Every structure is written in structure tokens, then in C-alpha cells.
Amino acid sequence: MILLVQVVGALLGLLAVLFGAFGAHVLKKSLSEELLRSFETGVKYQMYHALLLVVLGFNLGFTSALETYMAYCFIFGTLLFSFSIYGLCLSSAKGRKWKFLGPVTPVGGLLLLAGWALLFYSFIAHIV
């Protein structure tokens, strides 16, 4: 599990840099300001959580269910949140908005919140 978290974190980080450059140089010409801001939000959240996964991969042993669930929340939350935003932005720019992705974004956001809540709980569980 440690290696999976580190590899996924590194891949998400790599893709965040790639998508950020793509947005800044290629999509800037074809997306509205609002769509470009949304795309950048997806990139930012992806990078934040990529870095978090790498840090967790080096600091946790993933010997407990809590740590494993936390990692899965961050991985799947990032994929659902950021990649649904990318899909919505790119499909909107082509005039065929993929509306089915609309509900996916908040599900990804809820998974990210759950991951952060589990991380918080892991810190205070020994105190309470």
C-alpha cells in the first residue's frame, strides 16, 4: 500500500504539472475566463493532494484500516473531483457539456473531506 500511495501521488503530481501547463498555454485560447479558473482549481486540488499522498506514503505504515481508507479517500476523491472538472471544462469549450459529470465533482469533494477528517481523527485519536 505504501508504494501504491507514493506512485499514485507522484503520477498525480506529474499530471498536475502537465495539465497546468496545458491550461496555461493551450486552453487559455479556447476557454472562457470562468472555465479557465475552474480548470485551474482542478489542477490546484490535484497538486495539493498529490503532495499529500507522497508525504503520507513516506510517513504512514498503512497498517491500520484508518490509514488505508484515508489514502483511498484522497486517491479517489482527487480523481473524481479534479478529473470531472477537466471533463466539464473541456466538454463545455466544445459546446457539448457532459452534464453527467456535474454530480461527480461534489462526490469527489466529499471523499477529499472524508480523507481530511480521517487524517484529523488519526491525530486526535490518541488524545481523546
Could you characterize the architecture of this molecule?
This protein is an all-alpha fold and 128 residues long. The protein has one domain. Helices cover 79% and strands 0% of the residues. The chain has helices at residues 2-25, 33-59, 65-93, 104-124. Helix 1 packs antiparallel against helix 2 and helix 2 runs antiparallel to helix 3. The chain crosses the membrane at residues 47-62, 69-88, 100-124. InterPro entries: DUF423. Its main location: membrane. Keywords: Membrane, Transmembrane, Transmembrane helix.
Distance between the termini: 28 Å
Count structural domains: 1
Largest sheet: none
Strand proportion, as a percent range, falls in under 5%
Radius of gyration: 16 Å
Mean pLDDT: 96
- pLDDT < 50 stretches: none
Strand tally is 0
What is the overall shape?
elongated
Brief write-up:
The chain has helices at 2-25, 33-59, 65-93, 104-124.
Q: What's the structural blueprint in terms of helices and strands?
A:
Layout: H1 2-25, H2 33-59, H3 65-93, H4 104-124
Transmembrane segments: 47-62, 69-88, 100-124
InterPro entries: DUF423
Subcellular location: Membrane
Descriptive keywords:
single chain; 128 residues; mainly alpha
